[in-house]
Write a structure and sequence with these properties.
The complex is a heterodimer of chains A (about 160) and B (about 160).
Chain A lengths: L4 E11 L2 H8 L6 E12 L9 E10 L10 E9 L16 E9 L2 H9 L5 E13 L2 E11 L5 E5 L5
Parallel strand pairs in A: 1-4, 5-8
Antiparallel strand pairs in A: 2-3, 3-4, 6-7, 7-8
Chain B lengths: L4 E11 L2 H8 L6 E12 L9 E10 L8 E9 L16 E9 L2 H11 L3 E10 L5 E8 L5 E8 L7
Parallel strand pairs in B: 1-4, 5-8
Antiparallel strand pairs in B: 2-3, 3-4, 6-7, 7-8
The chains are: A mainly beta (about 160), B mainly beta (about 160).
Chain lengths: ~160, ~160
Amino acid sequence: MDALIKAFLHVCITVPDLDEALRFYRDVLGFKSVFETRTDKADGKLLGFDEEEIGIYAHHVLTAGAEHGHSTEINLIEYTNPKTIAEEGPYLQMNHVGITRLALLVADVKEACKTIRVHKGVQIVCEPKEIIIREPGMTIVTRWFSFRDPYGVFIAVTEPPKM
Amino acid sequence: MDRYINRLFHVCITVPDIEKALGFYQDVLGLESIGSLRNEKADGAVLGFPGQTIEIHANHLCGKRKENATVIDLIEFLTPRSDAGDKPYKLMNHTGITRMAFDVDDTDAIYRKLQQRGDVEMLCEPCTVVAPTGGSLRILTFRDPFGIVLELIQFIPESAQKS
């Protein structure tokens, strides 16, 4: 079978207010913006809208040390026309069918949790905890915590596993 | 600002039926499974099910470029069951993780393959847009068999374009 797909290019998070979102994704999580666009002429049909042209404001962000063009970006996007639908937040339950969550890799889960939890609007879902995976002849200790961003987007955080 | 996130580790797609999902993500899109779990029981706390043991089937998928790649974590929930009653986001301006995009070599070849299936809803026919960095992009957006919006992006450098 042919591998049609070269790479996973980006994942899109729709937010009601991009400048506010950047204060979390850039200033707290430390993502770096590599591309910015603000236009009233984005292709509406392509994104499934009835309108030919829609208005968007977007930043493409990357993690520390990631190489532009070779890593999956997060595409943070605020719809300006039609506006982002904010009343109904993201999926409440992780067993909802759809793209439900992101996972981030950090050096130290406990430190990351300390930094993230103090940002206004962040809700911790699960405090840092060890999850032990037992395989024949090997025990792997992974550590995780999970939270919702100020808009309710579900994010799990882990660190490199210890054997 | 300290940058402590190493990378986007994975993006999770919850599906109602893992075998049907693999039939699409693996056999049609050609993503490769690099790990598989069946009837895996886990502490539900990290995923927002405190005090519950959850049971899942999961596959980790990636494209041709594997080095440091963000993987797709395809998950079918058994306990509690994947909730398919409420479909994925209908509109892309809904707050949340709304879509993901893949880098491909030939958008039109995949488009023809998707058309043959009959269970894939196109949001828009393949179209060519000017790339912000020069050259152009051949883009297609569609819904997978569960309603999740995916995007294919083929980069066409300026030198390869017919004038």
